[in-house]
Amino acid sequence: MDCGTCETSAPLEMHKPEVVDVDLSISDNAVKMLGDAFGDDRSMALLVGVLSGGCSGYMYDLQIVESTEVDCQEVNVGGFRVLVPNSSSHLLNGIQIDYEDRLMGGGFKIINPNAESSCGCGESFS
Amino acid sequence: MPKVAFSDSYVTIWRGTDCRLFLDGLSSNQVLNLEKNHVVQTAILNNNAKIIDLVTILNFGDFLAIIGYLPNFQSMLDFVTPRILQSEVSISNISNLNDVVILYDQNNDSGIGTIETKGDVTYAKVSGNMTYCIAAKKVTLESEPMDETFHEWRISNLVPWHGYEINSNQIPYKCGVNELVHESKGCFTGQEILTRMRTRNKGIKVLKSIDNLEINSHKVTTRGLKNSLIIDNQ
User: Fold this and answer.
1) By CA distance, what is A55's nearest residue in B?
2) Would you call A117 an interface residue with chain B, using a CB distance cutoff of 8 Å?
3) Does residue B191 sit at the A interface (CB-CB below 8 Å)?
């Protein structure tokens, strides 16, 4: 097979989504839960990202991080540092981060005005 | 062993540390654990579990080679590339550098799922009776055109093919590629629909080879000389 390494087989032009300045909000429940998780330490940040996959094509990715190598924009919401990767900013602009206190299916939820549909568990959207 | 040219194929090279994880999330079969020198076939599906393309993935270690059906190439890229986001995935189109030939009618189960390079030709055995051969265009790969002999064999062996049974209106469970849906790998695009079909045993169809004299012609997906392939209820 000719893998193109020795030829001028350039990578295909990828779709580069526009980077937008993300505006997001956090519900009172989510602020309370983040306060419990972070304590008084505000050096940590909540990374809100999007990965490919899940039942609907995109999956939310929430992490508590100190820093990240991913190219991000930082938003301060409710006294918390929130990091959003620029590569997924177009998918996350306008979201609300909520927290549902339920024994089953509870946890952080993303309410996303950009999502046309989402899967049953709410972790995936399109 | 008969050989036919898969002339309406595309060949792409995927590089980057996230390739397998990325493809695992967007297709029906398990790709994440695909080892070096192994091959797997999987269906890239949209949210409605309809086939965007059925692809053959070869792991060469440093990169993946993906063979698909050329008419689906642009729709595959349109679906895949916006989802790369921050993943480390780079795709190159090397279709114009390589030829793909299908060896069929082997009936030998040894080495299924492995790839082997002999001289200038790479052999990827995707099933007991089908092997994909890829070689640079400068290498002469002898083959016949994909004509009625191949399709008669497909009809006899209930093998679905691109543009016939496998097309963009089809769900894997409705076109004879059930084995490409991994039942326990976790979430992938279209999975909810497929899982619902499987657990309720609803809507799943199978390929049947039916005598042309007994056939309802609008159901025919591949017409043969004596028998034809149809997609029908189980």
Assistant:
1) B189
2) yes
3) yes
Q: How confident is the model at residue A6 (pLDDT cuts 50, 70, 90)?
A: low
Least confident among A39-48, B4-13, B25-34: A39-48
In a domain, B142, yes or no: no
Backbone angles phi, psi at B104, to 5 degrees: -135, 175
Residue B149 CB-density burial (10 A; 0-12 exposed, 13-18 middle, 19+ buried)? middle
pTM of the predicted model, to two decimals? 0.89
Q: Which of A64-68, A70-74, A90-94, B66-70 has the lowest mean pLDDT?
A: A64-68
Strands A96-100 and A25-26: parallel
CB pairs under 8 A between A and B: 107
Closest to B25 (Cβ–Cβ): which among A54, A117, A126?
A54
Kindly tell me if the per-residue pLDDT of A7 is higher than 60: no
State the average pLDDT for chain A: 85
Q: How many CB atoms lie within 10 A of CB B151?
A: 20
B129 and B152 housed in the same domain: no
Mean local confidence (pLDDT), A110-119: 83
User: Tell me, what's the pLDDT at A67?
Assistant: 84
- Residues 6 or more apart in contact with residue B168 via CB below 8 angstroms: B50, B51, B52, B72, B75
Q: Residue B97 and residue A14: Cβ atoms within 8 Å?
A: no
**A15 in B contact zone (CB under 8 Å):** yes
Residue bearing tokens 């972070």: A38
The residue of chain A nearest to residue B94, with distances taken between CA atoms, is A4
CA distance A73 to A87: 10
- Beta-carbon separation of B192 and A55 below 8 A: yes
* A80 part of contact set with chain B, CB < 8 Å: no
Indicate whether B129 and B210 sit together in one domain.
no
Question: Could you give the ipTM of this predicted complex?
Answer: 0.76
| Closest CA relative to residue B166, chosen from B79, B77, B44 | B44
Return the CATH number at B16: 3.30.1360.120
